[in-house]
Amino acid sequence: MSNRETKFEGLPVEISEALQGLQAQAGLVTASLPSAPKRESLADAHRMMAANRRGVRQVLEFVKETDTPVPEVKPEALREWLKDKDSLWLSHEKPIPVIYAACVDECSDPGSGVYFLTAYWGDVDGCAGHSFSREDALKLMHEALEPGAITLVEEDSEVRRALLSKLRRPDLVSHVATATISH
Question: What is the pTM (predicted TM-score) of this model?
Answer without folding.
Answer: 0.77
